[in-house]
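Hallway conversation turned thread

IA: we were arguing at lunch whether anyone had actually written out Peptidase A1 domain-containing protein end to end. Turns out nobody had. So, for the record, here is the sequence (561 residues) and right after it the structure tokens. Reply here if something looks off.
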Amino acid sequence: MILKVSLIVVLLVICSCVVEAISRNHNQNPNHNNINKNGSSLAAIKFPDYPSFNDVSSSGDDCSFSNSEQLGHSGPTMTSGEETDEESEAFPAQKPHQNLVKFHLKHRSGSKDAEPKQSVVDFTLSDLTRIQNLHRRVIEKKNQNTISRLQKSQKEQPKQSYKPVVAAPAASRTTSPVSGQLVATLESGVSLGSGEYFMDVFVGTPPKHFSLILDTGSDLNWIQCVPCIACFEQSGPYYDPKDSSSFRNISCHDPRCQLVSAPDPPKPCKAENQSCPYFYWYGDGSNTTGDFALETFTVNLTTPNGTSELKHVENVMFGCGHWNRGLFHGAAGLLGLGKGPLSFASQMQSLYGQSFSYCLVDRNSNASVSSKLIFGEDKELLSHPNLNFTSFGGGKDGSVDTFYYVQIKSVMVDDEVLKIPEETWHLSSEGAGGTIIDSGTTLTYFAEPAYEIIKEAFVRKIKGYQLVEGLPPLKPCYNVSGIEKMELPDFGILFADEAVWNFPVENYFIWIDPEVVCLAILGNPRSALSIIGNYQQQNFHILYDMKKSRLGYAPMKCADV
């Protein structure tokens, strides 16, 4: 899960020569084979490839553009796509759904050369570092969240609507909701050494293809931009604003500029055409700095009658990043799906309603199958006989408005409700604790003492398998060589509203090598967040229903969605 922290750290990015800092970081870790080229000290995430259990040009160095055009619309707009260039042809036809937007998430198998034991250490260390920084960000409260900034700006300036505006197929334009299904492709980052999921997005006019990380734990959408003064390596060319006729800078005088954090120290806003600079810091130490702008995103819309057509969502707020650093594993940037107003999910609400969902395929699935991201009401999902709901939590003074909080009561191992102190799961008024569901964190992490109680319950109930030691940080681990069918305890989460989420064994045990499996759950400090990660969400259709403030989950073979 990714989240911005203190603005002061931008000095480390812009000053003291980024390239030299990256080089020093690499030299200080000579024995770390998985440090990526951008210089992060976190190891790359690699997953073992074993079968499942079930067989613009810038004017100077101030990150501002030479022109900042007046905005013609109050938010994104959508037009019909008539392009026939190669980029547009990449959109596949989809099954008919009404009032939906569906995106595809392709799965790629991991490298067979990966060392599984070291891989598990790598991605868990990356997760833990990220969580520690998230906790620090919540407690320190040095940076206001974007909701607070918006509320402050609304008191000082006339109220303005940032709803997306949809351009109709004809010359006329409308702000009415679009009737149809938006479709995108999500791709597992396994082959890139990542525990995250990637989405194919077409940006600009004419549309160019970029692969962005999908993250429900952050809000800002951003792409690496030319000139890339300090950027990480990505697959394909950088986005160049000069090549797009639809790119527009957001002025530093525009109230929307208040939605983003400025670099520290902030630059005085004087000139009328001065762009809006932003700085965004994530929980794992990654960050991006650049210009806040508007652009057209091209998506595939499946209409109610089942036909597929391209639509251009205009005036999408995004960051054009010129200084970027972190573990993004070949992606061109990030697509935020958090609850804040900047996220792609929030910007799409006036077009497709207040819900979105995704279904993540098993990481060991064939590379030809894909996961899905859907915007709008999915009637097939809502009619699923095994669809369950739990209410979203949070809403307290200390909660972070980006996060999707849920309220856990306890967990169950083999139908035994474990005796975990109730306060373990509570979100304090200072923002400590609580539980969130997140697509950007790989495994599931429970605050202490919950984790120790869960781990002890599994050790107590698992019989007949040899306990394997010396494989930190995951525990317990078992040797299952020669066993045709494993029998492991059931596992489920009991929520405060009595909803229950039961998981298949492949969602909470992970293969370390062909003979060893480990519990895919780790612990956090008592005051830290508990996180339900994407490994536990595989082959569940997850629904984020903001209108009714609830999380839905239904077991499903995601390759068939």
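OS: looked through it. Residues 1-73, 82-98, 107-112, 140-176 have pLDDT under 50 and may be disordered.
IA: good, adding that to the notes. Helices lie at 10-14, 18-27, 116-140, 146-156, 344-347, 349-352, 379-382, 450-461.
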